[in-house]
Structure formats: C-alpha cells, structure tokens
Amino acid sequence: MIVGSSLITANQVIVCENNIQVESCKNSILIFINKSRLYCRNKFSEGDIVFDSLKNEIVMKMGNISIDKISLPKGFSHLNHNGENTITIDQFGFISNACTISFSDKFNKAYNLTICVGTGYLEIKHE
Fold it and tell me: Which of 17, 78, 81, 117 is such that its CA lies 20 to 30 A from the CA of 10?
C-alpha cells in the first residue's frame, strides 16, 4: 500500500514539475520577445529573433552579433515558428509578420504563443 502511494506521489511530482516548467518557458519566451523589441526600439535598429530547433534555443541578433538567448527546459522539444527560423523586429520595436511559436513539453503536449502583426500583443494558447 505504501509503495503504491509513493508511485502516485512521484508521478504527481513529475507532472507538477513539468507544468511549472511549461509556465516558466511560456513566460520566458514572452519576456524574451518583449525585451528584444525594446532593445531594437532603444537602439533604433532592426534585429532578428532566430529559432534554433537543433539546440532548442532562441537567439536575439543584430546583424551577426548575438545579443541575448534563452533555451527550452531539458526534455522540451519541437521549437519552431511557423516553419521559419527568424522573426524580424524593426527599428520601432514592431514585428512585421504574424506568427505562432510552438514547443512541446516533456510529455509531447504542444503549446503555442501567437504574435499579432502591428501590435505589441502576444497570446498564449493551449492545444
């Protein structure tokens, strides 16, 4: 009886840890994008957010110079952005094309973050 309770508790811990990492990941991506937009606006220069699905990283670049980067949590995968690998930010901090950023958690559940064109609005959706 005690062993069965321990297994359920261990499973619950794994699920809870995953859920915390999902929320943290979503917020980190949103903050990263907004920081990148602000950086471009403050420098009055165009920049790119580049998605590296092999390394599960998102990198903010100005030209060939890497400014900042974040990584998905260990075990997360399938990082992509509408099949593209770059989002361009103009010198005013605006993103020129609508897109959806996707990633999967440790249990392969997909999560999407949607960016609308011409606004600062980003939305998190669950599938």
Answer: 78
Which residue, among 43, 38, 2, has the nearest Cα to 120 in the 3D structure? 38
* Each residue's pLDDT tens digit, 33-58: 999 999 999 999 999 999 998 899 99
Asked if 37 and 47 count as a contact pair (C-beta separation under 8 A), the reply is: no
Q: What angle do CA 105, 35, 53 make, to 5 degrees?
A: 35
CATH code of the domain in which 37 resides: 3.55.40.10
Strand pairing category for 110-115 and 65-71:
unpaired
Query: What's the pTM value of the predicted model, to 2 decimals?
Result: 0.84
Domain count, the chain: 1
